Each structure stands twice: as C-alpha cells, then as structure tokens.
C-alpha cells in the first residue's frame, strides 16, 4: 500500500505542552506500595523509594504525575497520610476494597517527584468531602507559613511549600461507581465553589474539572455542557478519560479506536467552545486527557480478589505488541490536537495498567513502554498540520486509515520527526513526504517497533521480546522522503 504525508512548515497545529507526556500514580494495587515505594526492597533508597523504578521513569521523561487517584481520591483524607508514620491510621479504601496503610502520603509523593524528575498534578476529594478540605490541602501545600495548615506542613519537616500548580477537582464524578457520585449540576456547582476557594488560597494554581469517564457514558455531552456552564470562570481544563480493550480479539477494530479517540477529543472541544460562545467569554477551556490507556487483560482476574487485603496484584495488565501499536496511535491522535490537549496522563505508571512492572527481584518494561518513551523523548516542539493520505478500512468507528501519523518540528534542534503506525496486519506501507522546505535534511534516526506476533509480551523472564530496533529503509532523495513501513509497526523517523 502507499501513503503520502503532506506538510507545510508554516501550517502548524500548535506547540506541544510537555505535560501531554504525563502519567498517573494512584493508591491502587501495587502502584505505590511495591511499585514506587518498598522500604524492604534491596532496590530501595534511604526513604524506601525504589531506585530501579525511578531510573525507568526518568527514561520515559514524564513531566507530571497525577496523584493520589483515581477512584481512590473520592474517599481519601489527605491528613491520614502526613505526619509521623506510626500515628497514621489504617483505613478501608472503598474504591478498591482494600486496606490503605497510609505509610506513603502527600509529602513522600512530593519527595519522590523530585527523584523521578517530575512534578505533581494533585487531585482533591470532591466525593465524600467538599470545599473546606479542598481549601485546607492547598494551604498545606502552597502557603509559605504562618497559618494552621502551612505550619502543620513545617512541623512535618517540610519547611518550604510544595508549590503544586495543577489540581484536579475530584475524579470521574459522572460515574455511578464513584464515591459521592453527583449529577452534572451538583458537581458543576461544587467544582465552581471548590475552585473559587482554592484559587483564593493560591491564585497561581490551575484547575481541571471532571469531564466524562468515557465517550460512551450515557451523560456524555450534556455532562460537559452543564458542568462547564456552572464552573467556566473557575476552571482552566476539562478532563477526558478513555480506556480501550480488544475483548473480541479483533485487531483491526481494536486499532481503529484512534478514530473514536479523535472524535471524542473533537466533540469535547466543540462543547467547550459552545459554552464559551453561550457565555460570551474570551477564555478558552483546554483539555486534560488525564486517564488514557489499554485496560482489559486483568478484568477477569480482578473479579476474584478477596476484599480487605493489603497491596494486592490489581489491574496488572500484561501488555502485548498490539497494545503498544494502539498506545502509539493514541499518542499520535492527541498530538494532532496539541493546540487543545495540553495535559494527558498515561494511566498508570507502575504495576497498575502500567508500562513499568516490578517484582521483589527487579523491574522491567512492558511493550507499551517503548512507544511512550520514543514519542515523549522525540516529540517535543511544534506539531505540523499533517495531512495523511492513506488507504482506509471499514470499522465500527467508520473509515479507519491504515496509517496514523503526525510530524513534529523542533526549531532548536533543527529536526523534523515523523511518528507513524502502519495498522495493516499483512502489507507494508510505502510512505512518501515532500520535504523540499526542509533543505538538506537527511534521515538522522529511524527506530521501529514491530513483531511477528501481535500477542507477544515482555515478562521478567523474557523482558526483551518486544523492543525497538533500528530501521534502515528510510531515505531522502531530491527532497522527497521515502520509507517502507513494514506491516504492523510503529516508527519514529527523525530528520535533520
Ligand atoms: O486508572 C484506574 C481507574 O480508572 C481510576 O481509578 C478511575 O479514575 C478510572 O475509572
């Protein structure tokens, strides 16, 4: 098959906000305990943080990490996780039916962000709690001192404020499974008042309101409209969440989910802008896609879990090669909307639906680690409006292109990077792109992620089964790029 990318260096989508490469750590399963924190591990540092995990996270180059949930946050009392560890209560976590020991909390997380070279995106509990507690946590984190909660932080050994800039106003409040689930009007009002009081404490913070938990939520659309109508002035971002699965073992349909994701993003943009128009505002609401990934492999296993245990193996999806292709496609889809998707979080980061897995004997990289690593490290700069002329196939989502692709220009480095997924399971794709505006550019690097088996996985015993390799068939002649993208493959082609 043949495809063409059409670009013009003056025709841009927008600058990439580096926070589009964010991720997520929830108090859930083995994400915190045995994931990022395991004092008894030989890999732990003096604070109990796993150094091997930090090293892998640094490779992913993740600028923000959302914390502490997820569903967990909707019943969480942040005060339980600060102060002397021997005084912290053990509590029921009703979101995941486990016991939370609170041995890791807000201050440990903030210490960990520095080690992992990242920053916090902090969520407040708007499920079982309200505006008073939302106010207090901002005071604890961001006020220098001289007030009850800021002095409490100092007493806990943190002289300087954490200065957390990005805050989520609850989590998935449209979901019936959420503790303190609300109607759109109830949540919109609460988000407005919580947001207003949080910004009274620290006007420099930015706030994310909950959008829908997925595109197929029955309230999708009207939820966004109503919520924003209530809290437009107080918030800066509206969230989107979406997970995909291949439950019918239909890979073409599974990979066509990038079409659904694109539609989801476009729809939310439309609703944000409709509310803007209705309210005659200058301010534009941006998008925070703060939970996205593949999630389905572990669903059956998780149904068998005993209630009220500690640190169970929960949501431990073992990702295969086709999952990595979709993850690449999802990232490409978000980049194509870089003008509006400013924040995004791969959900999650360690052990729980994660690119990084741990055991007592080590840490390893799942298949989805690699597209994230390649795009996060090489996808910095400005997105070019990339017209993809490629053959399509029929899917439940409508016509799905065989090729997902986007081009990113980095003016500082003087590079142009192409990310591309060939979704064709049998045929290679000949890719052509006219680069005459990019005088004298040559292929600097071509990395390919492919495998003959769509279901191939990486495990602790066999961690290098699915890994990227060097590509050797991309060339520029007379200003025209030509590359052969083998069947079922992801490519990072850097030119400069
Ligand atoms: O990431 C796992 C869960 O998925 C989160 O806790 C919740 O927000 C979503 O439903």
TrEMBL record:
Key words of the record: Carbohydrate metabolism, Glycosidase, Hydrolase
Biological process, per Gene Ontology: L-arabinose metabolic process; polysaccharide catabolic process
Subunit record text: Homohexamer; trimer of dimers.
Pathway given in the UniProt record: Glycan metabolism
Keyword Cell inner membrane: no
Family assignment from sequence similarity: Belongs to the glycosyl hydrolase 51 family.
Domain (Alpha-L-arabinofuranosidase C-terminal): residue spans on this chain: 290-489
GO molecular function: alpha-L-arabinofuranosidase activity
Reactions listed under catalytic activity: Hydrolysis of terminal non-reducing alpha-L-arabinofuranoside residues in alpha-L-arabinosides
EC numbers for this chain: 3.2.1.55
Superkingdom to which the source organism belongs: Bacteria
Name of the protein this chain belongs to: non-reducing end alpha-L-arabinofuranosidase
């Amino acid at each position: 098959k043949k495809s063409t990318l059409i670009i013009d260096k003056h025709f841009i989508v927008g600058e990439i906000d580096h926070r589009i490469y964010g991720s997520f750590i929830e108090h859930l399963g083995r994400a915190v305990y045995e994931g990022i924190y395991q004092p008894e591990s030989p890999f732990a540092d003096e604070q109990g943080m796993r150094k091997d995990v930090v090293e892998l996270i640094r490779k992913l180059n993740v600028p923000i990490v959302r914390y502490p949930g997820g569903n967990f946050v909707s019943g969480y009392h942040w005060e339980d996780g600060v102060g002397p560890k021997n005084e912290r209560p053990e509590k029921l976590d009703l979101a995941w039916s486990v016991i939370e020991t609170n041995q890791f909390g807000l201050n440990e997380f903030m210490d960990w962000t520095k080690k992992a070279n990242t920053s916090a995106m902090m969520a407040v509990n708007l499920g079982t709690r309200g505006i008073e507690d939302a106010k207090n946590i901002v005071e604890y984190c961001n006020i220098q001192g001289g007030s009850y909660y800021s002095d409490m932080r100092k007493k806990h050994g943190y002289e300087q404020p954490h200065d957390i800039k990005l805050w989520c106003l609850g989590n998935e409040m449209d979901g019936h499974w959420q503790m303190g689930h609300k109607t759109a009007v109830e949540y919109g009002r609460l988000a407005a008042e919580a947001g207003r009081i949080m910004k009274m404490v620290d006007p420099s913070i930015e706030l994310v309101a909950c959008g829908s938990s997925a595109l197929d939520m029955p309230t999708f659309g009207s939820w966004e409209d109503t919520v924003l109508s209530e809290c437009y002035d107080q918030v800066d971002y509206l969230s989107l969440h979406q997970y995909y699965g291949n439950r019918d073992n239909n890979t073409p349909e599974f990979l066509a989910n990038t079409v659904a994701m694109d539609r989801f993003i476009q729809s939310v943009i439309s609703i944000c802008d409709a509310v803007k128009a209705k309210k005659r505002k200058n301010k534009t609401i941006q998008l925070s896609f703060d939970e996205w990934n593949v999630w389905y492999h572990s669903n059956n296993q998780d149904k068998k879990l005993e209630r009220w245990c500690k640190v169970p193996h929960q949501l431990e999806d073992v990702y295969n090669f086709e999952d990595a292709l979709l993850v690449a496609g999802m990232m490409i889809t978000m980049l194509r909307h870089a003008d509006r998707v400013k924040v995004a979080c791969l959900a999650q980061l360690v052990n729980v639906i994660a690119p990084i897995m741990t055991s007592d004997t080590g840490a390893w990289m799942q298949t989805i680690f690699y597209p994230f690593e390649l795009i996060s490290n090489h996808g910095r700069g400005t997105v070019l409006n990339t017209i993809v002329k490629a053959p399509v196939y029929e899917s439940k989502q409508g016509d799905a292109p065989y090729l997902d692709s986007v081009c990113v220009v980095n003016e500082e480095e003087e590079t142009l990077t192409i990310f591309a997924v060939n979704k064709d399971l049998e045929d290679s794709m000949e890719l052509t792109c006219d680069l005459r505006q990019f005088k004298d550019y040559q292929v600097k690097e071509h990395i390919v992620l492919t495998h003959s088996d769509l279901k191939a996985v990486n495990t602790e015993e066999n961690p290098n089964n699915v890994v990227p390799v060097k590509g050797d068939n991309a060339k520029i002649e007379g200003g025209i790029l030509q590359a052969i993208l083998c069947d079922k493959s992801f490519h990072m082609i850097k030119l400069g």
